[in-house]
Specification:
The protein contains seven helices and six strands; from the N terminus they run E-H-H-E-H-E-H-H-E-H-H-E-E. The chain has a six-stranded mixed β-sheet. The chain starts with a strand and ends in a 9-residue tail after the last strand. The model has no long low-confidence stretch (mean pLDDT about 95).
């Protein structure tokens, strides 16, 4: 089984540098163009299944990637972004680096402290693990290619579950670019990285 995992396309809040979290912001036109371009790059992949976060920016990205395909996107709440609680809607530029929740989330996730009312990294890992163990692994022999569209934090969480401490080396210390597609092989319950994308549509 091959997993094609990516962060959603860009939104107006991405452009403005605002924390989104669970706030349900739609794609902007650039985000839709990127999703369509990603679909063109992946058009020869015969996807068996597709999953996305239920938030519209992820769901629409997945739907645009699958334009012309018979595969229907299955929303799964376990793929939602971390809640940033009271920090959602804030401009990152207005916060000092030490105050930015995303700064530690990607650089030192095990030391991440959520803003007031936000979700812990441990909670994120629990739902990422549940998604992999309850949805993906049981179908390893049935599904050949699976599309997973989520969020920066969620993709980081999936990498942590799949690769353990090695995920720190693989993922780096910054959120991935929008529509940067990672390809992970799953064979006999073991995850192996085929391609890690630092940039949009890299290595496809």
């Amino acid at each position: 089984m091959k997993l094609y995992m990516l962060r959603h396309g860009r939104t107006a809040w991405n452009e403005a540098g605002k924390l989104q979290g669970r706030t349900d912001i739609p794609l902007n036109e650039e985000g839709r163009r990127s999703a369509r371009k990603t679909g063109e790059e992946l058009k020869n992949i015969p996807f068996s299944m597709a999953f996305s976060s239920p938030l519209q920016r992820a769901r629409e990205t997945a739907e645009l990637i699958l334009t012309g395909s018979r595969v229907t996107v299955q929303p799964d709440e376990r793929l939602m972004e971390l809640s940033f609680g009271s920090a959602e809607g804030m401009f990152l530029a207005e916060l000092g680096e030490e105050q930015r929740p995303t700064q530690r989330l990607f650089a030192q996730p095990e030391e991440y402290v959520p803003p007031q009312g936000g979700e812990s990294y441990a909670s994120l890992l629990l739902r990422c693990r549940a998604f992999l163990e309850e949805v993906i692994l049981p179908k390893e022999k049935e599904w050949e290619h699976v599309l997973i569209v989520a969020h920066g934090g969620t993709v980081r969480g999936l990498f942590s579950v799949m690769f353990g401490k090695r995920s720190d080396e693989i993922y780096g210390s910054h959120v991935q670019k929008n529509c940067a597609v990672n390809i992970v092989d799953c064979t006999d319950g073991i995850f192996t990285l085929d391609a890690f994308a630092g940039e949009f549509c890299e290595k496809l």
